[in-house]
Design a protein that fits this description.
heterodimer, A: mainly alpha, Globin-like, B: mainly beta, twelve-stranded antiparallel barrel, two-stranded antiparallel sheet, about 10% helix, binds protoporphyrin IX containing FE
Chain lengths: ~150, ~300
């Protein structure tokens, strides 16, 4: 029974790989290019800011935020993280979120808004996940108490 | 303490836990904002807890994150060669910390019922579930999310289980489980894995009672799940669930399923699976399909 089970697992995996490989393979290119380069990153950040402004769960965090600076720093940050030709010149994640009492729920809500923004910009699933994977570790500097 | 007492204590405990949960919710300390990311509440497994199809996972029902309340309801149908099973129930989770669930299973004896000419045509049981997140988060951090769970099960039709040698009509399973989602795994896809170790003496998940002529002690059984998110809305995967073997009248096989989970949005999920439960109560090759609908918040 167990052996048969393993066989079925292998079959399932083979099927999965067939499905995924059928998509155009873009793994070799830079994440920055997968996000659409400068134009793409700017579009993602702008969509993201619209989503944040509309999100009643967390928009109260941003009432006093200098949106122009926030937008500029986010673009720099996403560009630099994804291997683009930028340098992040903003404050550290720890400094810029200190004392805001951001909990995991707020963090999740913001991540969800970013995902929605990337969906809207038609960013491929793999590229979305890669950017999220680069941002996720920042939770430890942003969330008040894990 | 005799069995009856343990049963009452466990159900009592379950009810007592509902009170603080509901109180906290009521005091508006918890909000139904469902901030957790899509699919991170899993589907609802056959015993009513957040999980896959046959395995309870370390995740909690619904989409409530810290300071929020979440929940889910489900209906599942499993159609095997000679039997069918229906399950339905609801779960609620508080602060992404504690999950309480209630489920009913109704197992149609089909062929076997007619062959035995027994009066009972089905085996039913109620399941009270409790799950506590002990540590960690499914997505954030290096370590997995850990949970401790209890499933207290109570048979409503004990005639057949007793006749084939089951010792008890109710019992509790205890388990520890760990789950992790890796962002951007192979080919940029998110990969999910879960391991659950269950202390149990349930025959066919409890539908054939607990303990038997081959032994009455609980054993640690291994359960696992592996999933891949093709997109954030579609997951494919497989599960394995080892079973104790306490009844001499029939072999008891381990369970297996291969699933496709659809998460169009946070309020609905649909799981379709191929299930192989092996030999069930003397009838071999119990394979078939599994369909589960979940509503969640
Ligand atoms: C991975 C997640 C996050 C990233 C990458 C991120 C990134 C940034 C960046 C680059 C800045 C600008 C820093 C500067 O001005 O030098 C910033 C500021 C800010 N962030 Fe975040 N952030 C994250 C999560 C959050 C969350 C969860 C919240 C609250 C819900 C939040 C609220 C804010 C606010 C209010 C500011 C503006 C502070 C000010 O006005 O100076 N951030 N964030």
């Amino acid at each position: 029974m167990y052996r048969q089970g393993m066989q079925q697992v292998v079959m399932t995996l083979a099927l999965f790989c067939a499905v995924v490989v059928a998509e155009p393979v873009v793994a070799a290119t830079r994440l920055y290019d997968q996000l659409g380069g400068e134009v793409g990153v700017v579009a993602i950040v702008d969509q993201f800011l619209f989503k944040l402004a509309d999100d009643k769960r967390i928009n109260h965090f941003f009432v006093d935020t200098n949106v122009k600076r926030f937008r500029e720093k986010l673009i720099e940050q996403f560009c630099a993280l994804s291997g683009g030709p930028c340098t992040y010149t903003g404050d550290s994640m720890q400094q810029s979120h200190a004392g805001m009492d951001i909990n995991l729920a707020a963090f999740n809500a913001l991540v969800e808004d970013l995902i929605e923004a990337m969906e809207q910009c038609k960013v491929a699933t793999g590229a979305q996940n890669r950017l999220l994977a680069l941002l996720a570790p920042m939770h430890q500097d942003i969330i008040e108490k894990p | 303490m005799n069995r009856q007492k343990i049963a009452h204590v466990l159900v009592g405990l379950w009810l007592v836990l509902l009170a603080p949960g509901a109180a906290a919710w009521n005091a508006a300390a918890l909000v139904p904002n469902n901030s957790r990311i899509l699919a991170t509440g899993g589907a609802t497994q056959i015993e009513g807890q957040a999980g896959g199809g046959i395995v309870p996972w370390a995740v909690l029902a619904g989409y409530g994150s810290s300071g929020e309340v979440g929940g889910s309801g489900f209906y599942t149908h499993v159609e095997l060669k000679d039997y069918s099973l229906e399950a339905f129930g609801a779960a609620v989770s508080f602060d992404n910390r504690m999950e309480l669930s209630l489920a009913r299973q109704e197992f149609d004896l089909g062929t076997l019922g007619r062959a035995l000419g027994v009066p009972d045509k089905e085996l039913r049981q109620n399941i009270f579930g409790l799950k506590l997140r002990l540590y960690g988060d499914l997505i954030y951090g290096v370590l997995p999310q850990f949970a401790f769970g209890v499933q207290y099960k109570h048979n409503l039709d004990f005639g057949i289980p007793a006749a084939v040698g089951a010792r008890h009509d109710s019992d509790a399973d205890f388990y520890l489980s760990a789950a992790k989602l890796w962002l951007a795994g192979p080919l940029g896809r998110n990969v999910f894995a879960n391991i659950t170790l269950r202390h149990t003496r349930a025959n066919q998940g409890g539908l054939l009672g607990f303990g038997g002529d081959r032994g009455d002690s609980r054993e640690v059984m291994f359960e696992s799940a592996l999933g891949f998110f093709i997109t954030r809305h579609i997951a494919v995967g497989a599960e394995y669930r080892q079973q104790p073997h306490k009844l001499g009248f029939s072999p008891q096989s381990d369970w297996f399923d291969a699933f496709v989970g659809l998460f169009p949005g946070k309020h609905v999920a649909l799981v379709a699976a191929y299930a192989d439960l092996g030999t069930v109560a003397t009838l071999p090759e119990q394979r078939g399909w599994y369909l589960s609908l979940q509503v969640a918040f």
